[in-house]
Specification:
homodimer; 228 residues; alpha+beta; Nucleoside Triphosphate Pyrophosphohydrolase; Arc Repressor Mutant, subunit A; 2 domains; seven-stranded mixed sheet; three-stranded antiparallel sheet; 29% helix; elongated; DNA-binding; WHD_NrtR (chains A, B); WH_DNA-bd_sf (chains A, B)
DNA sequence: ACAAAAGTGTTAGAACTACACCCATGC
DNA sequence: GCATGGGTGTAGTTCTAACACTTTTGT
């Protein structure tokens, strides 16, 4: 009964939900699938697990091949196993979500692979159970950003308070009060205010900040806990 | 490159962390493994995914075979894929944690299978990466009990405030103030106080409560959020 | 009468929410 | 000079945390 039975072997896939932020909206990256079945339809970025790699390795490989990006925040969040989720063959899929700075991704590679950014609110119909994956990833991202500062990974290195607020607004999908937001962020004391302004968004210009990783680490606590 | 390649098929296992509560301590159920490798060593309850079932089905089947229990709270939380995690053969394992009322589990079945409850704090060395699984499951359980009332699944139907407090104390691994705890629970308004006392724990006796599922559902909100 | 656990409220401090005006600059 | 987005503080309310004594009853 408890036996290593080769009959029960299955194919394992990895699918990645890639979140980006363009100062307006939370975005997600999809590709036009280039093989059957469902060739030509929108899909998450995915691929099969190879014999000699871990799921994390596979997720990084797949993401790297598509975008050229390395060393970004990635988290595994669920494994999907409905019998008929893939009509060709029994395939189990483990999904990851990743957070990338949209300015850094390699535009050529994504275009070459028929990839396209969509607003989260305008996601198209996706193949298989990928819409479900997206929904779960979004919920997880929401919860995660409340307890960990991973959100900063979506921003350029230097950013304004306004960008940060828009980012949180688009992740949480609600409007926040400007003053309360700034007060709360400042009270956390994990940002460094630069003597430098971003002049692109207004005539007055707005101060740029950078995330202070050292200060954050020094707090060595998991209670970032940004309740918004 | 993106191909259905039979070479890459792997075995998929399911391992379950089963939490119970005996009015003193949070407990976890382990079994003595009865096949090679590592035969005779402590292990999580687990088994292999069969061709025609989902991971959820497999987890329920495995748990049912061992304990006779059905329809309990179970949640998938991570899939483990280190190349050498199982020395015999490449095996990926998806882990679940389950929450059961320790009084209801079928004692004969567990004894027959060499299963044994351990205090969470006294867990033995487990095979493969099972100690890691346990640690992750414990963290997940902690977070989950803060935002959802699944903890009640660990208690008998009727329970005292003191039992409930001890349960939360052992899940969160910290002492709580009796008065603050009662006030907070009462303010949630999801318990029904019975006109019945439990006389086993003191001469005075303490009131019994039951969880009011209807009231909880009626609040139809996810903000249970018990900050302790 | 005493031991053992149950039950019960108040208060000070912290955190959260709501809210409105002036500033700097490019046009 | 005016339109645009940037920046800032306070007061009322709610939530949290700390804290000690009385009740009941079996022995």
């Amino acid at each position: 009964m408890n036996a290593y039975n080769p009959q029960d072997k299955v194919l394992l896939a990895v699918d990645c939900i890639i979140f980006g932020f363009d100062n307006e909206d939370l975005k997600v990256l999809f590709v036009k699938r280039d093989f059957e079945p469902e060739k030509g339809n929108w899909s998450l970025i995915g691929g099969f697990l190879k014999k000699e790699e871990t799921l994390n390795d596979a997720a990084n490989r797949i993401l790297h091949n598509l975008t050229g990006v390395n060393d970004i925040y990635m988290e595994q969040f669920y494994t999907w196993s409905n019998i008929d989720r893939d009509p060709v063959e029994r395939t189990i899929s483990t999904s990851y979500y990743a957070i990338i700075n949209i300015q850094e991704y390699n535009e050529k590679l994504t275009e070459h692979h028929n990839a396209k950014w969509f607003s989260l609110t305008e996601a198209p119909h996706l193949i298989f159970d990928h819409n479900e994956m997206l929904a779960k990833a979004t919920r997880r991202l929401r919860r995660r950003t409340s307890i960990s500062p991973i959100g900063f990974g979506l921003l350029p290195e230097k950013f304004t308070m306004r960008q940060l607020q828009k980012l949180y607004e688009s992740i949480l999908d609600k409007k926040l009060d400007k003053r309360n937001f700034v007060n709360k962020i400042k009270s956390m004391d994990i940002l460094i205010k630069l003597n430098e302004k971003d002049m692109t968004s207004s005539t007055k210009g707005s101060y740029l900040y950078i995330f202070d990783q050292e200060k954050y680490d020094a707090k060595q606590t998991n209670d970032f806990y940004l309740k918004l």
